[in-house]
Amino acid sequence: MRIRTSQQESLKQGPQMAPMIDIVFQLLIFFLLTLKIVEPEGEFQINMPINQPPRQSSEIALPAIKVRLIANEDGSLNSIQFGERNLGSGDDVFKRLNQVILQTVGGDQAGGANAADTEVEIDADYNLDYSYTIRAVSACTGAIDPVTNQPVRYVEKIKFTPPKRPAGAAPQL
């Protein structure tokens, strides 16, 4: 009797491809149905000002008020200079600085439009303790009104000069 080899070959079957194709189509349909199409961002509502001719300002821009903080070797405050004027040192030097700023800006205009235009430039020594710089910023910015207990702004803009390392000093790590 002869054994047919072709039947044995017909009994060997590979993996069924039809169920795999069905799963692929089901996944494709699932992802297409769950896909949310959104508009790409790029449209912004911007309110532009109306084109106006440039106005001639009668006010002259004030130069920056220069405040110099001079330090001792140990980092403590030696003195404060307002422009070329020496305000000295001591516990009340920041009160004097506050009064000079108020006189310069104008007492009746403190907190007004002049406060937004006036700029103070603080030049502190490289080795000055940071607490003195903060006290100088507070003195230049304004004061607390004793009647209303509300802050009164003398100056809105305060900038610092870039720190200058002393010539013979090595960087401290």
From TrEMBL:
GO molecular function, one term: transmembrane transporter activity
BP terms from Gene Ontology: protein transport
Location within or outside the cell: Cell membrane
Principal localisation: membrane
Superkingdom of the source species: Bacteria
Membrane topology recorded in Swiss-Prot or TrEMBL: Single-pass membrane protein; Single-pass type II membrane protein
Record flagged with keyword Cell division: no
Keyword terms: Cell membrane, Membrane, Protein transport, Transmembrane, Transmembrane helix, Transport
Record's keyword annotation contains Membrane: yes
GO cellular component, one term: plasma membrane
PANTHER family tied to this protein: BIOPOLYMER TRANSPORT PROTEIN EXBD-RELATED, EXBD MEMBRANE COMPONENT OF PMF-DRIVEN MACROMOLECULE IMPORT SYSTEM
Similarity-based family: Belongs to the ExbD/TolR family.
Protein name: Biopolymer transport protein ExbD/TolR
